[in-house]
Here is the input.
Amino acid sequence: MLVACCLCAPLLAKPGAMSEDYVRERERQKFSKPHGFSAEIDAFGLFPYFSQSQRVEANGLRGDTVDWRGDAGGIPFGAFLDVGVRMRFSWHDSIELSYSFAILREFDEFDSNTRWNGFIYPDGVDMDYAADFHDLHLLYRRDLFYAGSANNFNFFIQAGLEWAVIDTQVGSDDFPPQDNRERERFRELLPWPALGAGFVWNFGEHFTLRLDGLVGYADWSTLQNREGRKVNQELFSITGRAAFEWKPVPWFAVLAGVKYRSLNVELESKKRNSEFEWWSVGPEVGVGFRF
Here is the structure.
């Protein structure tokens, strides 16, 4: 009887208590050691619904907003690339560099007289529409705390700089303007600050959910001149992302999620004012590498 009781005791004991204590101790020992250096590289294909428009006024002539979909007849769905690199140098500190771009081209006709950069395109002539949008982020992230029995949930804040390289064009082969007025580059645009927050939840050994948001704002002089006049930049940006990650092996991940991005930029001087607006939301899929 005594032998039978001894053999049955491990089967009747509660497995959760010892298992949970073991997990806590393992995680405590893990975070008590220096992290060292690690890196994550992600590459996404974005497939958003988007809206884009641009406007330039100059020489005392007001400018008309020219829209990718409404005026140029462009399709409001696209496929773009988004690449990000995160370098972690402690359990709580990391730096992220990301880049995405959109290159738009469309050929249509002006359906009304359109004012652009001090020039008027008459109704009915052909339209050459272009917009290049290169979007960059450099962020520092601080993981504030880890929670859960295995420290598998962490909340973070992030701060850094955003910048955009923007090149726009509204032109016509039938009625070309002089002095290359069909093209407007936002050369005076400077990087601007951005703040955000988010969380990462590791559930199971192979799955991760990440949700984060970022807001940027600026309203100040660029300390540069346009035709002898000071330029002021005013902008507002929002970025939001929810991403799901599956790691079949420790060094490789399959990614899927949703991304939202909006940006409104205005460069103003007494000689020429320029505006660029972008808005997009849609699914993304990609792969990641963990080192």
DSSP finds two helices and 15 strands in the chain. The chain has a mean pLDDT of 89.
